[in-house]
Amino acid sequence: MGKIKSTLDLVMERTRHLTLSREEKDAQTKVEVHKRLKGLVQKYQDDLLRKDRLGKELDILKKTYDMNVDPILLNLLLSSLEPGRHYKMYLELLNEICGLNVSGLEKIFQDFKGEVKSATERRVNEIKADLEKKRFISGAAVVPNLEGDREWLSMLGDIKGRFDQILTREKGRLTAGSSSEI
Asked: Which residue, 12, 136, 161, 178, shows the most beta carbons closer than 10 Å to its own?
């Protein structure tokens, strides 16, 4: 009687003559390093990994894969920055691990918060005035629901879009300036 082969045995038997080119191996390595870096950053973000341990893990990755993981980490951190999202942890890593001056990014996020706050106050006052004028509803207990206000959501989208463009330019400047350092 013949031996019953598993699917893995069949696949291995049919693909044993195939080999990866150097470029394919490098691409696979980069994908694997990117996944590992993403996992390390997530652990750091979840407070499961301290900064000093993150540095050690990065050194281990560099030795294990015999490659400079700094550009991949830089791109991973920069791509995680978006207006309206939590950003302090990413800026901290960009500054302390990647050695970048993040003051421009900090200013962009502070300006974004300030503009959103100012627009929020303006829109709340507009809605309150409209309620008082059209429906005779007023007082300290009136709290407009901005989440359901289409005009507010449109304003917020415009603000985010504008700041996203500013942030993209700053990321490009940092990437161009750091490529000679990394």
From this structure: 178
